[in-house]
Specification:
Length: 318
């Protein structure tokens, strides 16, 4: 792309394209004479999507962005971790993942609008915006009460009991979302009178008496089999689940039933989480190696790869 031939090749590829997705450092395309305005003028139906750290303008405009650093800057780390502990990076690159999904949503919205107007448009998704958007319920809570949200471990800031508890076998996460579920949980655990305790009658009261309720549940669950009690609670309509390791998730028959593990020859990967009834995802080949299909893609577009051999990525020697 830094060479004239590379820029020419890109423009040729965009002639019949619906979407151009890029995440170059802000200003890079403009330096090459490929600004969004130029692309819109040359390809009026093109959807140009840019993924960046902070966007092109504003106080942080044009700064590079990295998932962990943006987790810190958007406050996600400040609410992640044990109560009284230090801010903690989330164990998965959550902002990278959500920004990618936001980019897809924006592209689909633009394609839907283009079906009516016939015009393309510029779509932007930034790590910073995506990070801020995930602060739920912390941001709404702050807007309402002005209190800066703090770390609370596994506890939900608004719902109780919504936390992890030790059992004799594995930790169990209880996600008791309403009063009916709470009463049912108490019955399943053999303490129906706890469901009538005036301290725990409503979610608001349970929040006021969090520590007392936790002590009760710790005593009830400590000697139970976490997996078995989870099955009993779920069967009764109480949301919960054992805290599992990655290998246990991969081995779970339901993971395979849902098509979330894909095996092709000696390759194993993760399946598509979105299921379509008429045009479901299919897996016909393993992921390609670097530049494996460059020649085929260009040939389909009527472009001779030999004409651009100097700027095309070289296939690795096997």
């Amino acid at each position: 792309m830094t060479q004239q031939a590379g820029q020419e090749l890109l423009l040729r590829m965009l002639e019949g394209a619906d979407v151009f997705l890029e995440n170059f450092k802000i200003g890079t395309l403009e330096k090459w004479g490929l600004s969004s305005e130029m692309l819109r003028e040359k390809f009026p139906r093109l959807i140009h999507c840019r993924v960046s750290g902070f966007g092109a303008d504003g106080p942080y405009g044009s700064q590079p962005g990295y998932d962990a650093a943006v987790q810190a800057m958007t406050g996600l780390m400040s609410v992640n971790g044990e109560e009284g502990g230090k801010p903690l990076r989330m164990g998965v690159p959550i902002i990278d993942l959500v920004t990618g999904m936001n980019a897809v949503i924006g592209i689909l919205l633009a394609l839907q609008e283009r079906a009516k107007s016939g015009k393309g448009q510029f779509v932007e998704a930034t790590l910073y915006d995506s990070g801020v958007s995930m602060l739920h319920p912390q941001l709404p809570n702050f807007y309402l009460n002005g209190k800066v949200p703090q770390r609370s471990g596994n506890r939900h800031p608004n719902i109780c009991p919504y936390d992890a508890f030790e059992t004799r076998t594995v930790p169990l996460f209880l996600a008791v979302g309403n009063n009916r579920q709470f009463v049912t949980m108490c019955k399943v655990l053999g303490r129906p009178e706890m469901g009538e305790d005036p301290r725990f009658a409503t979610n608001a009261l349970r929040n006021q008496h969090r520590d007392e309720l936790r002590d009760e549940l710790v005593a009830l669950l400590g000697e139970r089999d976490g997996v078995q009690v989870s099955k009993e609670l779920v069967a009764a309509g109480v949301p919960c689940g054992p805290v599992r390791t990655i290998d246990q998730v991969v081995e779970d028959p339901h993971t395979h039933h849902r098509g979330m593990v894909v095996d092709i020859d000696d390759y194993r990967g993760t399946g598509a989480p979105v299921k379509l009834s008429r045009t479901p995802a299919s897996y016909r080949s393993r992921p390609p190696s670097f530049a494996q299909h460059t020649d085929e893609v260009l040939a389909e577009l009527g472009i001779n790869p030999e004409d651009y051999a100097a700027v095309l990525p070289r296939k690795p020697v096997v």
